[in-house]
Amino acid sequence: MTTATENPDVVLFSATLTPHRSLSRGGFIALMGFFGAVSFVAGMVFLLMGAWPVLGFLGLDVALIWWAFRVNFKRGNASEHVWVTPSEIRLRRVSHRGHVVEWAFNPLWVRLDQKIDPEFGVERLTLVSHGRRVSVASFLGAEEKESFAKALLAALQAARRGPTYNPL
After folding, report:
1. What whole-number distance in Å separates Cα of residue 21 and Cα of residue 35?
2. Are 72 and 139 contacting, i.e. CB atoms less than 8 angstroms apart?
3. What pLDDT shows up at residue 139?
4. Which parts of the chain sit beneath pLDDT 70?
5. pTM, rounded to two decimals
6. What's the 3-state SS for 53-122?
């Protein structure tokens, strides 16, 4: 067993944050099948009534809905990784396109700012150090941001206390 005195880079806190997606791939296929079937049946009704251009517009509607969901699923690939050790706090953000940006802060100097709305709760979390401001956990809900902020603040306080030595 290693202690913080033996290894100063022991991880005090680690979190991987991803956007919430309530629709699974199977649900997406079922939903698109439903939209496609309804549009096809409605299009056939309009075609039999002589309004043939409506069939094309209903097909276009299904194509646009499919495209919007595909974009939404692509954006779900974004993530944020946060690590706190006694010597640094590291934030690694991966965009939905795969672009990676990393920030490193000294936990002794970093501050977690919270923008709190009395009606909606925590709206924004920002890591602040030496004039740099980096937003964190932007795609979480208010309750999730509050829980994340409590855990991150506890880890930052543990990092500021430094390693503990227990000779027993």
Report:
1. 20
2. no
3. 85
4. 1-8, 164-166, 168
5. 0.71
6. HHHHHHHHHHHHHHHHHHHHHHHCCCEEEEEECCCCEEEEEECCCCCEEEEEECCCCCEEEEEEECCCEE
